[in-house]
């Protein structure tokens, strides 16, 4: 059972606990479960352009990070939001939303790459950083000033 997916952004593996995904790692992995196998299959379909939205149980973090994660999963593929828009929705400063995005343990599945600064792209945790974010946004058909 393959527990690592090789993607255009490099290897991806996942962790799960109590029946929910807890982390996406930018490296090869050894964790194995039916949920991880399904999640990697959905990620493969996403990278192949066949999947519009993930249907997986996700473990959201408590507090502000979890509130921001819940906002991010609502951003449709091909669309973006700003840190300020999410900040208004969760009633927190935009800088705190940026930090919560940076602490997102489930990039791609919880699409922090779809969150942008008012005048910048912001950052991204994948190897390649902002270049990976741009690749994901283009892959999703996002309409940015790229």
Automatic annotation (TrEMBL):
Enumerate the spans annotated as Methylated-DNA-[protein]-cysteine S-methyltransferase DNA binding domain: 67-141
- Residues annotated as transmembrane: none
Q: Which reaction does it catalyse?
A: a 6-O-methyl-2'-deoxyguanosine in DNA + L-cysteinyl-[protein] = S-methyl-L-cysteinyl-[protein] + a 2'-deoxyguanosine in DNA; a 4-O-methyl-thymidine in DNA + L-cysteinyl-[protein] = a thymidine in DNA + S-methyl-L-cysteinyl-[protein]
Q: What EC designation does it have?
A: 2.1.1.63
| KW Transmembrane (keyword) present | no
Per the UniProt record, the source organism is Stagnihabitans tardus
Pfam hit, one: DNA_binding_1
Q: Which CDD domains match?
A: ATase
Q: What is the protein named? A: Methylated-DNA--[protein]-cysteine S-methyltransferase
Q: Name one GO molecular function term.
A: methylated-DNA-[protein]-cysteine S-methyltransferase activity
């Amino acid at each position: 059972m393959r527990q690592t997916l090789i993607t255009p952004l490099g290897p991806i593996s996942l962790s799960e606990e109590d029946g929910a995904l807890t982390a996406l790692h930018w490296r090869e992995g050894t964790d194995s479960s039916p949920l991880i196998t399904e999640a990697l299959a959905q990620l493969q379909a996403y990278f192949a352009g066949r999947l519009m939205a993930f249907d997986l149980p996700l473990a959201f973090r408590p507090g502000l990070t979890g509130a921001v994660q819940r906002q991010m999963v609502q951003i449709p593929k091909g669309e973006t939001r700003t840190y300020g828009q999410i900040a208004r929705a969760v009633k927190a400063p935009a800088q705190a939303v940026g930090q919560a995005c940076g602490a997102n343990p489930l990039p791609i599945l919880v699409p922090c790459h779809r969150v942008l600064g008012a005048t910048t792209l912001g950052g991204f945790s994948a190897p390649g950083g902002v270049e990976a974010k741009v690749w994901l946004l283009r892959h999703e058909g996002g309409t940015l000033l790229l």
